[in-house]
Amino acid sequence: MATCTASSIADALRSAAQVITEHRDELVRLDREIGDGDHGENMKRGFTAMVSKLDSTELATPGAVLKLAASTLISTVGGAAGPLYGTAFLRAAAAVGDAAELDAALVAKALQAALEGVVARGKAVVGDKTMVDALTPAVAAAESVAEAGGDVASVLSAAAEAADQGAESTVPLVARKGRASYLGERSAGHLDPGARSTALLLRTFAGSAR
Ligand code: ADP
Ligand code: MG
Ligand code: MG
């Protein structure tokens, strides 16, 4: 795909809702190991609500779609992840402004803004065993592919690949942020649920852009 439009982003979010629903139990299981077991249900509730809103609203720009996603996630996901993902989508919306279409450079810029939002809100750094461990390498990969002249699909597939590896990298880590940090050393040996959901989302967006 050469560029992303409001309708292609809405379709990517519908696919994301489906993927999150399919992985609901996996995310619950991961969060049960080092948290309170609600991440899968929280995300499923948020993305399901988002699809209902997308289905009943005609939105003209990518920024408007991202803003609707943000406000729905903020009001429906709850927990730590709701405000973090909400901020991510809100910053992405602000970064694309009222552009009618997003090219590869703007997609990379939106991902960078999303990461900045998550970090501003949650104050986590790489190695704290959070979604930041998936999103940070994803943004770096997206930027380097965009700078090299890659298209939207290759930017997103590089981001998805890096996010998968970043999520896997959380397994041996001791959590320093969020609920898992209450476990101290016992949080090691488990995949962070938020890093996993971030990787799932980016994989879905990459698939949608192909
Ligand atoms: P809660 O922990 O409130 O139940 P969720 O289970 O929905 O919320 O989300 C947990 C996920 O949120 C974690 O796996 C982690 O990736 C992410 N998270 C928690 N705190 C932070 C933070 N300060 N910065 C970034 N991500 C965080
Ligand atoms: Mg939880
Ligand atoms: Mg909770």
From TrEMBL:
UniProt GO MF annotations: glycerone kinase activity
A GO CC term assigned to this protein in UniProt: cytosol
Keywords carried by this UniProt record: Kinase, Transferase
Superkingdom assignment: Bacteria
Domain DhaL: 7-207
Xref: SMART domains: Dak2 (SM01120)
One of the protein's GO biological processes: glycerol catabolic process
NCBIfam families per UniProt: dha_L_ycgS
Name this polypeptide is given: Dihydroxyacetone kinase DhaL subunit
UniProt source species: Saccharothrix variisporea
Lineage: Bacteria, Bacillati, Actinomycetota, Actinomycetes, Pseudonocardiales
